[in-house]
Amino acid sequence: MVLLYTEGEKFIGKSGLGKAIKHQMIALDEENVLYTTNPHDSYDILHINTYFPKSYLFAKRAKKQGKKIVYHAHSTEEDYRDGFIMGHATSKLFKKWICKCYRLGDIIVTPTPYSKRILEGYDELKDKKIVDISNGIDISFFKENKNYRKNLRKRYNLSSNTKIVLGIGLYIRRKGIVDFIELARRLPDYTFIWYGYSSLKAATSDVREAFKNLPKNIIFPGYGEKELIREALGGCDLYLFPTYEETEGIPLIEACAMKCNILVRDIPIWDGMVEDGVNVYKAKNIEEFTEKIKLILENELPSLKNNTRKIAEERDLKIIGKKLKDVYESLYQ
C-alpha cells in the first residue's frame, strides 16, 4: 500500500503541484497500484509530495518506523528564486530546507532530466538516488474539437476573426507575466488571454507595477478548470510560454496534446524535449518574442502544430503509472 501524502492541499490545489498530485492518483489507478491519501491508514511506502514542516516531520517519523520513502522533488532553488516577494533573499535557506526534506527519501523522483541534473548538482544530495519521471497528462482528455475556437471567442465577446495569444500560470515573475503584458502592449492587433491566478500581494514589485497599467487587448479570467484550459488551448492561435524557469511546465505538454502553435522562451529545460523550428518556436528576449508572434500569427512562419502531439503522448499517465510502479518495486530489490 502506498500513502500519497500531501500537506496544504487547499493551498496548493490550483497550482502546478496540485495538478501533479491529481495526475499521480490517475496514473496509479491505471496500473492498479493500491494507494491511500489518508495518513491514518496502514501503508508500506510513503510517497510524499510537499516540503512543508508537517511533511518533513511525517517523513521523519516514517523513516524511524522503517517505512520506504519516495520523496517527490517538484521544486528547486532555481524555480523558487523568481517566484514571490523575497524569493531572492530567501532562496539559499529554501534550498537548504528542501534538501533536508528530500534527503529523507530512499529515492527522489523529479519531473525532468533537467531538474534531475540540478538536484544532482546540490552537494547535499550527491549520495542520493534520483530518477526523472514526468508529472504527465491525461492524453485522452486533451483532444481537438472544432467548436473550441468559436466557443473561446464567444466566451469573451470577441469577433470570429480575432487572433488570440494564450498564456497560463500564476501571477509571478518567473512565469514571464511581465513580458506577456508588455507583448500585449506592443501588439495591439491581437488579443492576449492569461489563465491562472495568485495574489498580487505576494508578487514581486515588477509584477504589481505591470498590473497597474494593463493594455486594452489583454484579458485575465483568473483560474481556469481543466475544461476551460482545454477550450482555450484548442481555440487559441498561439500558446505563448515566456517562463524563465521550470521543473517541467505541464501547460506546455497540454498545448502539445492540443496541437497548438507554440512559442517558448529559449531556456535549458526545453533542450531535448522540444526543438526550435521542428515542433515549437523559441525566442530569447522581448524583441524576438514580438517578431516571432507576428510571423506566426500572420502565417509567415510555417505552422508546426502537427508535430507536437507525440511529445504529449510520451508523457501519458498510463506510461507514468508504469514508471512509478517500477520505482516502488525497486525499493524492495
TrEMBL record:
Keywords: Transferase. GO terms for molecular function: glycosyltransferase activity. Residues 42-140 form the Glycosyltransferase subfamily 4-like N-terminal domain. Pfam families: Glyco_transf_4, Glycos_transf_1. InterPro entries: Glyco_trans_1 (IPR001296), Glyco_trans_4-like_N (IPR028098). Residues 150-313 form the Glycosyl transferase family domain. This is Glycosyl transferase, group 1 family protein.
